[in-house]
Design a protein that fits this description.
The complex is a heterodimer of chains A (134) and B (79). Chain A is an alpha/beta fold and 134 residues long. Chain A has helices at residues 14-29, 63-72, 78-87, 96-101, 119-126; strands at residues 4-9, 33-38, 91-95, 115-117, 130-133. Chain A has a five-stranded parallel β-sheet with strand order 4-3-2-1-5. In chain A, helix 4 links the parallel strand 3 and strand 4. Chain B contains two helices and four strands; from the N terminus they run βαβαββ. Chain B has one domain: TusA-like domain (Translation Initiation Factor IF3), CATH 3.30.110. Chain B is an alpha+beta fold. The chains are: A alpha/beta (134), B alpha+beta (79). The interface between A and B is medium-sized, with 17 and 16 residues.
């Protein structure tokens, strides 16, 4: 394993989850250590209750064409990409503070979430690598 | 090498990062000296495989392309 990618997943809209899936899977395939820290509205994408994530209002009219294009080009859904990244060794952590604010605990999260951690734990894991904020 | 272990990984039709992921999965099952032949159609595969090989310390032997697919031959020299 060489190199490290850490992603702070903050946005809760469907479009932003695409680069999360792509970059996590690509980095894991590159044999990099991958850590995803989920916070803010992004936590909704990791809820056990499966809800469709919203598109940002300014891109809403383009959403059907985008989804159709993704299907046509056989782009995997973000969920499958992140699951594949995890099979290759990626880790996903939920932010403890925001989980509490949103009334979520370990039982609220789906299979993608490994653990609930604090900001300091994530910063320690991310140290010395590349970090992205999405 | 007549008896080299050559494996074809058919990733045609998958979009980025599908090909590089299929390559990584095959790499994890490979041994030093094996040759992986990656078939893909996503145009990003050429530069992605180069980056992958540099990152993992493996060797690209050839990159060829026809109308149907891009074929990249990778020799596993490091595991």
């Amino acid at each position: 394993m060489s190199g490290k990618l850490s992603i702070i997943m903050f946005s809760g809209t469907a479009d932003k989850f695409i680069p999360l899936g792509v970059l996590a899977q690509a980095a894991a395939a590159m044999d990099m250590e991958v850590n995803v820290f989920v916070t803010g509205f992004a936590l909704m994408g990791f809820s056990k209750e499966k809800k469709d994530l919203p598109f940002p209002v300014e891109f809403q009219s383009m959403a059907p064409a985008l989804m159709q294009g993704m299907k046509k080009n056989k782009v995997a859904p973000w969920y499958d990409m992140l699951k594949q990244a995890k099979k290759l060794g990626a880790h996903v952590y939920a932010c403890s503070m925001m989980s509490g604010v949103m009334g979520m605990d370990k039982k609220s999260f789906n299979e993608l979430v490994d653990d609930i951690v604090g900001a300091a734990t994530f910063l320690q894991k991310a140290e010395g690598g590349q970090t992205l904020f999405i | 090498m007549a008896n080299e272990n050559r494996k074809i990984v058919d990733s045609r039709g998958t979009a980025c990062p599908g090909p590089i992921t299929d390559l990584s999965l095959a790499y994890r099952k490979s041994k030093v000296g094996d040759v992986i032949e990656l078939w893909a159609t996503d145009p990003g595969v050429k530069s992605d495989t180069k980056a992958w090989a540099e990152k993992t310390g493996n060797k690209i032997e050839s990159v060829t392309e026809d109308k149907e697919k891009i074929v990249i031959v990778i020799r596993i020299v490091r595991r």
